Structure formats: structure tokens, C-alpha cells
Amino acid sequence: MDKPGSNAVRDKLLVYIREMNDYDGEIEDDTEILKLGMDSLGLVKLFVFIEQEFGLALINAGLTRNELASFGALVTAVENRIEEAGNR
Amino acid sequence: MRLPYRKGRYYLSGADWLIGVLDDYMRVSSGVGNHSSLVIELGGSLSANLLAARLNLLAQHFPELQGWVSRDWLNLCPYWQFSKKPCAFPLEIFELGEDSNEKELLLSGFLNSPIGSGKGNEHLSFRILRYSGRDCLLLSFDHRLLDARGAELFLEFLADIPDDEVLERVAGVKRTDGAELRNWRERFSAGRDVQRRLMALSRDSCHGFVAPVTNRRGTVGRLSYRTDHFPCAAASRISLTGEKTAGYMMEMPYLLSLTVSSLYAGMPDKDCRLLVAVPVDLRATGREREKLLFNHVGFLFFSLRLSPGIGSGEILDQIRAQYIEQVQMDFPRRFFEALYPGRIFPLSFLRQLLKLPVKGRMATLFFASLGDLSTSSREILGVPVERIWHLPRVPSPPGLAVLFNRSCGELHLTTVRDESIGERNLADFPGLLVRELEDIGNVSSDA
Q1: Which of A37, A45, A47 sits opposite B285 (nearest CB)?
Q2: Under a CB-based contact definition with an 8 Å cutoff, are residues A77 and A63 in contact?
Q3: Which sign, positive or negative, has the C-alpha torsion B241, B246, B248, B249?
Q4: Which helix H or strand E contains B11, and what residues bound it?
Q5: pLDDT tens digits for range B52-77
Q6: What is the per-residue pLDDT for B208?
Q7: How confident is the model at residue B446 (pLDDT cuts 50, 70, 90)?
Q8: Where are the alpha helices (DSSP H) in chain A?
Q9: How many whole angstroms separate alpha carbon B234 and alpha carbon B251?
């Protein structure tokens, strides 16, 4: 799998979140994940999407609450794990 | 042809109609409909006069809380007809003595009694249980009007705020909804997928603690309950252990695996399949208060194969795999959409269909993990809230429900069972589950 460019993770997550949650508000780096119009399973659906899209094992990856506090933090967490997976 | 419906009405969804079917089923089989109670334990004494005044305000300005189901003239879509002459909500006060069992006996009685007279348009009732200066407020709600999250959000109308602020909150609730007479292709596609899955689940029989009900009315027995509360530190450790064991956002699968494992401990030599139905809230975060009324739930279904020697880790693996698969295909929302066409059928007809899946057992048990409260309110008319837990009824079969919820940092476990399920059938459940959770809650975080 090609390593995504610096904005690829961000762009794919933005598209997914807007489509899945029918969300048309602003999404900035400091936007809280849980305020993106998701239902109670929304975060799990997002994880499943990330795992499939980027080939990561996210659910068991020891994610911390800080990494999920905001959209920007999530993008960074995903990028870091992609880089770790690429370095193995 | 333009299908008729009127704007300005709240048309019931397919999920509402399913809950209506369950309610009808439970009334026929047990004499009491499908209701639950929120048990709100307070850190002081609640003024009955203030509560009565607040409830009168709500009765006058929120007539949707008292209503009934009606149909449009072509009988296509059921809608909620609210009362033009609302009356006061039932409010009872009970003074309890020193006997600590008295509260449990009362709650058990309420669990097995209808709301109000059981015949009218009463869908909410309120009871204050007074003892030792610390009152308990019981909000009993008909599931045709509110689901569990809706009932929690309702508490925000009982906050210590001026009346005009209450009415502002009421104004924020969605009180009309369209008939949704569109997107039929998508709905029938969802229906096909859901039906395939349910038929696959029904292919093999599932273990049931209660035999399928006969056609004789009122044959189903009383329900009894047990509730356990895990203090903040233990609740936090259980949550962290769940994250480490099952993964982030996997608390429901984790708690379900512990529940099934404890249940199966009472059937050690049995090869069997358990079918678990789990309701899932479909409200978007940030817009919950709009959708306070009626039902906004889909369902997950877990088919778990158990054989002697199976450990809770293997059970968890089965649950996680099925959880992720169903989340991936958006099953709960597709289930919700698939139910819409069923609205044209009368409840009595659909009640008969409930006996078809899994040879009339519906499921082995109902399970819910509600997580934190939907409401941010931590007082009722100025009296601090110490604890809120749910006391649900359950249809029989399956006759067994397990519900977890969190409030004020604590974790609460409520188990409700049909009393016809003998103690022997359940062995040491839920005692075994409680002890396991206590052990997890007591382990040092360094372990």
C-alpha cells in the first residue's frame, strides 16, 4: 500500500465524516470528535473505516483518550500508526 | 399518487411500531405493558409541591406527553394523537419505615404494575419514596413514548430552573415528524438484508430460559429484579480493564462477554447457542434533545456458540467479530429503516409474527449497556442526585434482561428476570457476574 501523503489521511477522514454523519459544519483540528454528529456507534464505525482504509489494527492499538480528543489529534494518531507500521 | 398524510403531526417510525408490538405482546401475556423506570436516588428531601407544580406546567405545555396512537384516513401511517385536555400526571408519595427491604418490595411491585390505570393515556408516572431524609424519585415511562435515553433527557425538565426556561427546553423538542413515505427502494433493500440476517439467526434454535408463550392470556409470571452498584474507583477500573482487554470503545462487547460467561457457568455441560438482542441508540450527538420523544433505536444481534470449556476470551472474540461486522454494515440503522413498511399492519397481527423468529423465543436475553447518562443535570428541583439507574420490564420469553448504566461515576447493573425461571436454571447468575466485576474493580491499576 502506498504511504499516504501528508494531507491524505485528513482529507479521507473529512470526506468520510461528512458523508457518514451528514455533517456540514466546520471541522477544525480542535473540533471534538464526539461533536461531529455521530450516533452511539459512530466512533466504532469510524475506527472500522480507518482500519480498512489505512490497513491499521486500531481498535486494539492501545489508543488513548487524548488521541481521540479532537479531529486533529485523531489525524496525528492515524498518521503516527501508519508510519510505525511502515517502519516495521 | 400523492399518499396522504398531514403536516404538523408526529408520525411514528417503524421502531416506534416495533416497540408498540412489544407493548401489545406484553399486555396480552402479562397484563402489563412495556415500561421502565428511572430510579433517581437523591441526597435530600424533594418537595412534592414543587414537583407537582412542575409536572402541571409540563402537562399544560407539553400535551404530547399524554396521547395515543391514531391513524390517517387511509390507515397507512400511525401517528401520535395528543390530548387536547391534558390532566395532572400521577404523583404518589410513600413514607418508608426503617425496614430496608420495604423499598425493594415497593419497586418490585411497581415493576409488575401498569402505569396509572393501565387503560388511559397515561405514559408517565412519578413516585417519591421517602426514607431517612433521602428521597428516591421514581419516573416510570411507557416505552411507546420514551426510550431509555429519552427518559434520561426528560430529567432536564425537572431541573431547578425558572418555568420559562423549562418551556424553552420543551420548545427544543421535535414535536412533529413526517410520515417518511419515501426512499422505499432503500428501505426494501434494508429489509431484505435484515430479513436474511434474522432468518440465518433463526435457523438454529437458541437456548431459552422461558418456554414460548401459549395463546392463553395472562399466563406469564411476575418479574423480579436485582440491582448492584459499583463505586467510582471500581467502575473506573472496570472501564480501563475493558479497554485493555477488548479495545477502545468496546465496553459493551466486554460487559456482554462477562455476562454471557457468567450465565454459561450455570450450564457447564451444555453445547448451546445463545441469542442476545442489544438495543443501540441512533441519535446524533449534539442533537439528542430534539429527539427526546419516542424511539430512536436500532438493534444488534449476537449469536454465540458455547461449548464446555469455553473461556470468556473466546466469547469476547465472537462478540467483537459480530459487533464489528454489524457496525460495518450499519445493521442497527438498516434495521431501523427496514421496520418502516411494517407500520401499515395492526399490532395484533405483528404480535403473532413475533412468535416466528427462533421458534417464539425472540432471544435468550436482552442486554443493554447505556454508558454515561444522556443528561448533564445532576439535581432534581435543587436536590442533588446521588445515583440514577434503570429498572426495565422485559418480555417473556426471553424473560431475562441485563442492563448496565453509569451515573455520577458509578457503574450500575440491573438484572430482571421472569420469576418462572427458577433459581436452579440460572445457577448463581447474576451473583457470579457481580463477584467477577467486584474482583476486576478491586484489582490495583498497577496489576
Answers
A1: A37
A2: yes
A3: negative
A4: strand B10-11
A5: 999 999 999 999 999 999 987 676 78
A6: 82
A7: very low
A8: 8-21, 42-54, 71-87
A9: 15
Q: Is B153 left (phi over 0), alpha (psi -120 to 50) or beta?
A: alpha
Angstrom CA distances, B39 to A1, A38, B6, B85, B288, stand at: 53, 28, 38, 29, 21
Question: Which residue in B264, B238, B242, B262 sits closest to B254, CA to CA?
Answer: B242
**Residue B11 or residue B208, greater confidence:** B11
Cell 414543587 belongs to: B50
B280 touches chain A (CB under 8 A): yes
**C-alpha distances in Å from residue B309, one per residue of A52, B270, B379:** 33, 10, 47
Question: Quick one: pLDDT at residue B4?
Answer: 60
Residues A47, B243: Cα–Cα separation, whole Å: 14
Residues of chain B contacting A34 with CB distance shorter than 8 Å = 285
Residues from chain A that touch B371, judged by Cβ atoms under 8 A, are: 40
What distances in angstroms separate CA B330 from CA A49, A82, B193, B369, B415, one per listed residue?
12, 26, 11, 18, 28
CB contact under 8 A, B371 and A21: no
Task: Give the minimum alpha-carbon distance from A32 to chain B in angstroms, rounded to a whole number.
Answer: 11
Q: Do A60 and B287 touch (CB under 8 A)?
A: no
Please give the average per-residue pLDDT across B8-12, as a whole number: 86
- CA pair distance B354, B397, nearest whole angstrom: 11
Cell 408517565 sits at which residue?
A: B124
CB of B15 less than 8 A from some CB of A? no
CB-CB: which of A21, A45, A68 is closest to B327? A45
**B327–A44: do the CB atoms touch at under 8 Å?**
yes
Looking at mean pLDDT, say which of B161-175, B183-197, B237-251 comes out highest: B161-175
Grid coordinates belonging to B137: 424519585
- Residue B249 to residue A60, Cβ atoms within 8 A: no
Cβ of residue B323 closer than 8 Å to a chain A Cβ: yes
Instruction: Report the Cα B310 to chain-centroid distance in Å.
Output: 30
Q: Which of B280, B286, B320 sits opposite A41 (nearest CB)?
A: B280
Q: If DSSP codes are grouped into helix, strand and coil, which group holds residue B283?
A: coil
Q: Is B288 on the interface with A (CB under 8 A)?
A: no
pLDDT at B216 over 60: no
Q: Are B235 and B404 in contact (CB under 8 A)?
A: no
- For B243-264, what is each residue's pLDDT tens digit? 889 887 889 999 999 999 999 9
What is the helix (H) or strand (E) element at residue B109, kind and residue range?
Answer: helix B101-111
d(CA B12, CA B343): 8
Tell if the CB–CB gap between B280 and A40 is shorter than 8 Å: yes
Task: Kindly state the DSSP code that residue A70 receives in the 8-state scheme.
Answer: B
